[in-house]
Amino acid sequence: MNACKPHEAAALLGQVYRLSLRDKQIGFTNANVGGVCFHYTLRASEMLSGTGRQMFQQRILRHHFHELTPDFTIQAVSEPLGLFRVAYWDSLYDYVILYRIDQNTVTAIGWDYLFLTKEDVSQKLLSVEERFPEVMGTAKTLDYIKQNGCSIARFGDGEFNLILGKDTPFQKYSPALSARLLEVLKTPSDENFLVCIPQRNPRYNNPANIIGELNFWEHYWYKRFDTVGKMLVNPMYGDAFVSRDAVFYENPLESIKGLWGNRDVVFVTGKGSRFFESSALFGNVASKGFIWVRAVDAFDDYDAILSDCLNIPGSALFLLALGATATVLAHDLSKAGRQALDIGHLPNSYDQYLGLIHSPEVLPVLS
């Protein structure tokens, strides 16, 4: 039996000890599968649905009980404790199911991301670094917006995932939205419109050691650059973190607020969403208005949202906090000769910078 590397075994054992009483509760049981009883804790059930449980059972039965067919993704975590893990490979996250064997009873205890060291993936990380397009820092992005009076559309993991057919907490996937996002992503940046993406391995908004030794964005690009990288056709991009905590660490507050200072502003955002009008950020506007839309699946009402924006007279600046819908809306408003800034979680990110919250993502999707 192959054994896990010591660092992976230590991480998995640590997870076992940290499981809450609720996570340890048995949520599902298959009493007799080929003479073996399978239990699934609530934690393990997060990853193993009906078909997932069947595949798991087949792999465990073949390896441990019946044919004794070697499965090299199964490794011992602690043989004295009867603990093992089996690995799965997904399009975004590779993960393992941790389980215990006690005679003819198998208990799926939990799951974790497959532990990766930088040495494990060093060649791939180097390849991504060599091919990654140039991304302006937040300061240059702010300067570009001020100098040109342009609109910006931001892409993060959510927007990339929607292009690739994955739902997000704010927006379900649709072919129409996927096509529009890809159109915007491939739009050449000019003095009227700037496409923004995250840097390869940024200093901020990049949780460390989240997948083994890899930071969040290191892992994201490790898994997705071969696919997403083909869509990045522009030679240079703005920095998508112009709306995250990075912008406050890297720029004076007054410089950020200068984007909308003494402007007539219209906020376009979801009613009951995480967004709030921060007086510390927006107290310098000349006037303000709101277009309230649904907080989840806003793209379903896209035509009406665009129409409401175009019906606003004058030279108002649109500040968009509307998930992936804002990415498309900023593009279309720019084409119509209006200025729109996709500001996303900016007020929440300011609270993060001040130490009031851990990150915007810990807040409820709906208030």
Distance between the termini: 50 Å
- Protein structure class: alpha/beta
Tally the helices: 15
Roughly how many Å is the radius of gyration? 24 Å
Summed over residues and divided by their number, the pLDDT gives a mean of: 94
List low-confidence stretches: none
Assembly category: single chain
The biggest beta sheet reads: 6 strands, mixed
Kindly state the number of beta strands: 14
- Helix % is 25-40%
Give structural notes:
With 367 residues, the chain is an alpha/beta fold. The protein has 2 domains: 6-113, YaeB-like fold (2-Layer Sandwich); 134-208 and 234-362, no CATH class. The chain has helices at 6-18, 21-24, 42-45, 50-65, 122-131, 138-148, 157-163, 175-185, 216-228, 245-250, 253-257, 279-282, 302-310, 323-335, 346-353, and strands spanning 26-33, 36-41, 74-78, 83-88, 95-102, 105-113, 134-135, 151-154, 193-197, 236-239, 264-270, 287-293, 317-321, 339-342. The strands form 3 sheets. Strands 1-2-6-5-4-3 form a 6-stranded mixed beta sheet. Helix 7 packs across helix 8 and helix 8 (175-185) crosses helix 14 (323-335). The longest helix has 16 residues, at 50-65. It is elongated, with a radius of gyration of 24 Å. The termini are far apart. The model has no long low-confidence stretch (mean pLDDT 94).
Helix-strand blueprint:
Blueprint: H1 6-18, H2 21-24, E1 26-33, E2 36-41, H3 42-45, H4 50-65, E3 74-78, E4 83-88, E5 95-102, E6 105-113, H5 122-131, E7 134-135, H6 138-148, E8 151-154, H7 157-163, H8 175-185, E9 193-197, H9 216-228, E10 236-239, H10 245-250, H11 253-257, E11 264-270, H12 279-282, E12 287-293, H13 302-310, E13 317-321, H14 323-335, E14 339-342, H15 346-353
Parallel strand pairs: 2-6, 7-10, 8-9, 9-10, 11-12, 11-13, 13-14
Antiparallel strand pairs: 1-2, 3-4, 4-5, 5-6
Helix pairs in contact: 7-8, 8-14, 13-14
